[in-house]
From TrEMBL:
Organism: Arthrobotrys flagrans (Nematode-trapping fungus)
Domain called GPI inositol-deacylase winged helix: residue spans: 168-260
InterPro entries associated with the record: Ankyrin_rpt, Ankyrin_rpt-contain_sf, GPIID_WHD
The entry's keywords: ANK repeat, Repeat
PANTHER family found in the cross-reference section: ANKYRIN REPEAT AND PROTEIN KINASE DOMAIN-CONTAINING PROTEIN (PTHR24198), ANKYRIN REPEAT-CONTAINING PROTEIN-RELATED (PTHR24198:SF165)
Native organism taxonomy: Eukaryota, Fungi, Dikarya, Ascomycota, Pezizomycotina
Annotated ANK repeat ranges: 456-488, 489-521, 556-588, 589-621
Name recorded for this polypeptide: GPI inositol-deacylase winged helix domain-containing protein
Length: 642
């Protein structure tokens, strides 16, 4: 759990979380500088928090105990002599246990075990990681297993790695195929998520100088064979957990990668061949090439993912598709390669929305956004959405019949709207300027409508403001974007800019309008309107960026959760509850959210509120208990839900 997330939980949510945890259980907190917020939180809690971190300055300051009545803290730090001594003794116990295990496995004598243990214990600055790596190297040394004696052990232990980096170097030096090992490590280091054994098998076969065009030409290996091959390639440098491939430790990644504009570190003791040997850009280019070639497989055109077909079931039948579809564009951007015309044309082919293969990978990608798929997405929209500047430029210059103002069927958003929302200023510039066809200005051809409105009546400027894309905001304003066009809930680009608290964005819009209001009053009004209309995106934006409190009252003394409940907006109610809204608050007529949901027959919201701890015995001014409404709800639940 993120410490900031815990801090934002309301007292009731913290209390409920505490009651739900079995005595003795712990919550593991990810280390961040905001840890001081945990200590400054007052009040009783049943929670036990285990915080682990590296000893960075910000985190050390955050872990300094503050005066919090009724709280107790136990600090275990490794930056003072007493704690260092304790940790060293614990490591010695670990060494003793591991040497005993190795001794039993290799049938070492007591003298041989003592020799090995003494050598390890005498090492300076030893850590658990170093001991683990070193003993694994010792255990796998073929000389130890073939001719075990005191002299052999003495020889082996005389050359033990002194640092973790030396241990890493020695592990990779034993690889049976350095070229393939380097390819695999590029993939593991650069991947957006861990690949499975089956995915890695396919990815390696799609590496450089391979031209597979179908699953039929891929050699499908048994998973255990893939696991063994990986062990032969990289030894203990990578591990397999639940069929997914990981580096053995975070420091392994730090050992391998060479940061941009960096140069490999030089070691006076020995020359490293693997340290700082992988450039992130090269890793991303490799993964882009693999994913890109994969998405051209024949099966995605001959047996595509259809509109009403289950995407997850289709993905399960097509190895690596989940990864390729979701991340090929990410790797393209991070590789920072200059796109020539041939690559641009290939991207346009992959983004041709009239092809079945394009719709297949795009449906898989869109499933990860957890929103409804937008039909009638054009190639220009697709290229604009993902930020393919050269592809957009090529489309606009080569196709005189292109409709830059076309909209998708679901959200009614244009290519300009998608590009503005995702912050691609170069594409926005292309779309709002005068059209040229083969280098000649076309006066009768319309450029993109800068004030085009979607299904929620939002313009491209609204999405640029929401996501704080200041360059896009400036381009749109210069092109004539209006700051006063209201959407369905009454929000304008200007009002969103003001209540977001982003002064740089608001300043640009205020140059176009002298009308402004209070940030607080605008935010409250918009939140209530969005809650009543069920606009989850706007609610989330106002809560997270606008910093509007979820329990702000309107002029009728209602809160957003009451407005959302009364109108049956389950998604908004869930969002408000997650953000700490008080579910027991009462409106002008003294009813709670549960009473509203019960009387209106919103069974799903009732269930959500009850799961969130709503008081089923609550009464309002006329003395009626919500229990009678719950009885009615039992009937609703039986008849309306499976």
């Amino acid at each position: 759990m993120d410490p900031t997330t815990f801090h934002t939980l309301g007292p009731k949510q913290q209390s409920k979380l505490g009651r739900s945890i079995i005595t003795g259980s712990l919550i593991l907190i990810k280390p961040k500088p905001e840890l001081h917020k945990l200590y400054s939180t007052k009040g009783d809690s049943n929670l036990k928090l285990l915080v682990t971190s590296r000893p960075t300055r910000e985190i050390r300051h955050g872990l300094q105990p503050l005066e919090v009545p009724g709280s107790s803290f136990i600090h275990l730090r490794d930056d003072n002599e007493e704690e260092v001594g304790k940790i060293s003794r614990e490591i010695d116990i670990f060494i003793e246990a591991r040497v005993r295990d190795i001794g039993n496995k290799l049938e070492l004598t007591e003298i041989e075990r003592n020799l090995l243990q003494e050598k390890l214990v005498s090492a300076q600055n030893r850590t658990y990681l170093w001991v683990s790596l070193t003993l694994n190297l010792v255990e796998s040394d073929i000389n130890l297993s073939l001719t075990t004696n005191g002299r052999t052990i003495a020889k082996i232990t005389s050359g033990l790695p002194e640092t973790v980096d030396e241990a890493y170097e020695r592990i990779l030096a034993t690889s049976r195929d350095h070229e393939t090992a380097r390819l695999l490590l590029h993939i593991v280091v650069g991947a957006a998520r861990p690949l499975t054994l089956e995915e890695m098998n396919l990815a390696l076969q799609l590496g450089p100088e391979n031209n597979h065009k179908s699953y039929r030409s891929i050699f499908i290996k048994p998973t255990e064979r893939i696991r063994n091959d990986i062990r032969d390639l990289c030894g203990l440098f990578v591990i397999v957990v639940e069929s997914k491939i990981y580096l053995i430790h975070q420091t392994a990644k730090e050992f391998l990668i060479l940061q941009d504009n960096g140069s490999p570190e030089h070691n006076t003791r020995q020359a490293f061949k693997w340290k700082n040997s992988l450039r992130p850009k090269d890793s991303h280019q490799l993964l882009f090439d693999i994913s890109f070639r994969h998405l051209f497989f024949e099966e995605f055109e001959s047996d595509p993912l259809l509109e009403r077909q289950d995407a997850s079931e289709y993905v399960d039948r097509h190895i690596l598709l989940d990864y390729s579809a979701k991340y090929w564009t990410t790797h393209l951007r991070k590789s920072e390669i200059d796109l020539d015309q041939a690559t641009t044309n290939a991207i346009l082919k992959l983004c041709d929305t009239t092809s079945k293969s394009c719709l297949t990978w795009f449906r898989v990608f869109w499933a990860s956004t957890n929103t409804d798929f937008p039909g009638n997405f054009t190639t220009l929209m697709l290229a604009s959405y993902f930020g393919f500047t050269t592809a957009v430029k090529s489309l606009l210059e080569s196709d005189n019949n292109i409709d830059a103002n076309a909209k998708d069927d679901k959200y009614r958003r244009s290519a300009l709207s998608w590009a503005a929302g995702n912050g691609f200023d170069a594409i926005v510039t292309q779309l709002v300027k005068r059209f040229r066809w083969k280098g000649v200005r076309v006066p009768f051809k319309r450029r993109s409508n800068v004030n085009s409105r979607d299904i929620y009546k939002r313009t491209p400027l609204v999405y640029a403001v929401w996501n704080r894309h200041i360059l896009v905001v400036k381009i749109l304003l210069k092109a004539g974007a209006r700051v006063d066009l209201a959407d369905d809930i009454g929000g304008t680009p200007l009002s969103y800019a003001i209540c977001s608290g982003h002064e740089d964005v608001a300043e640009e819009l205020l140059k176009k309008s002298s009308e402004a209001g209070s940030k607080d009053s605008i935010g409250v009004e918009l939140l209530h309107s969005a809650a009543a209309k069920g606009d989850e995106d706007a609610v989330k934006l106002l809560l997270e960026i606008g910093k509007v409190h979820p329990d702000e009252l309107n002029k009728f003394r209602d809160t957003p959760i009451l407005r959302a409940t009364e109108n049956g907006r389950e998604g908004v109610v869930r969002l408000l509850v997650q953000n700490g809204a008080d579910i027991e608050t009462r409106g002008e007529n003294d009813r709670t959210a549960l009473l509203y949901a019960a009387t209106k027959g919103h069974s799903k919201i009732v269930r959500l509120l009850l799961q969130s701890g709503a008081d089923i015995e609550a009464r309002y001014e006329y003395g009626e208990a919500s229990l009678k409404f719950a009885v009615e709800l039992n009937r609703l639940l039986r008849t309306r839900e499976p």
